[in-house]
Write a structure and sequence with these properties.
Elements: H1 5-17, H2 21-24, E1 37-42, H3 46-60, E2 68-75, E3 85-90, H4 97-111, E4 118-123, H5 127-130, H6 140-152, H7 157-165, H8 174-178, E5 184-190, H9 213-222, H10 229-234, E6 253-259, H11 261-274, E7 278-281, H12 290-306, E8 311-315, H13 331-343, E9 350-355, E10 371-374, H14 376-384, H15 389-394, H16 398-405, E11 408-409, E12 420-425
Parallel strand pairs: 1-2, 1-4, 2-3, 4-5, 5-6, 7-8
Antiparallel strand pairs: 8-12, 9-10, 9-12, 10-11
Helix pairs in contact: 1-11, 7-9, 12-13, 13-16, 14-16
Amino acid sequence: MIDHRPLLRAIFDAAVAAAHPDRILAAHLPPAPRGRIICLAAGKGAAAMAAAAERHYLDTLGLEPSRLAGIATTRHGHRVPTRRVEVIEAGHPMPDAAGIRGAETSLDLAATATPDDLLLVLLSGGGSANWIAPAEGVTLAQKQQATRALLRSGAPIGEVNTVRKHLSRIKGGRLARAGQHAGEIVTLAISDVPRDEPSAIASGPTVPDPTTLADARALVARYDLQLDPAVAAALNDQRNESCKDGDAAFARARFEIIARPRQSLDAAIQVARDAGYEVADLGADLEGEARDVAATHARLAREARAAGRKLAILSGGELTVTVRGQGRGGPNQEYGLALAQQLSDLSDIAALAADTDGADGGAGNADDPAGAIIDARTFATIAERKLDPAAYLADNDATGLFEQTGDLVVTGPTLTNVNDIRVILV
């Protein structure tokens, strides 16, 4: 029997490589200003983006080192060596005190910008959790409780960030407001959100926010979120309204997406085609409950097999999990577990689902799994050990099952994030 695992990993690795800061950032960096470059970065790729910017300005352009300063706030375990930009490792998905230091130091640095300076903001997925500056009257513990409730609700990331933006002093355009005296604010972003909405990437710290406090309150009601009274009060305080289009903060601000899920999905598709597969491209912006999407994709795989097609079914986007059990895992592992449940009688279908940042759920550690892989070997182990995928699924414990089958995908930090890549080979 053919081992499809090397090809599955090659497809995933191509998607990651297409969005790596070392490969993509330099071509988009603006010219050096008369004064300083203040580099502020946030997200899982923040340190890697800052290091790439340093190489460009200090080595390629020969900029005097004293003219470059900044801070990069990234997830724990995602540090890379830098020379002028301080790196702070902070919590993700649960914010922590280090994230407060990163956000507040970034706001303070932005406020020092003069008309001779460039405020260079480098964003990647995870910035919403890494930059944590709670609204006045809200403590870190209260913000953590709100984040936990949002993440367990099953809400899409755009809706999660709508609430986050109205509980923050840095999100929703407020960083641009802090640095509005800079000669120019240039934001370069690696998109990890469906449809590449700028205000959703790291919760839009340098762009106008189309959502409102009323929208945030409506989402709290829709998902029946049980929030601390101080958080509820903050969402009723007009002072916490985010920055809107026309605000002076954006007069000299420019925003550019330098990598997006579509580009990474295209790179993955090319590897599948080169391997001789017909491709079903389901798009880069899929959303929905992981187990429901898996059921739909399993039907597509069965239909292709019945028709005798050699088909690769690929998709990107960000799925969600409504947490009802006590287990471990993330949307990619849950998708893989649901897919295994649907396809366990077929030995000639293999699949991989993993997050391009190298972490799918988990406890915020650098060695958390990126996702899972399934094939005939998986199905045989499930049968041999008498594992019950339905029971694991009911407990949201995909990690527990895949630990026993040996099918977790562990990559370590990839230093970028353009969302998930899912591949089914028929």
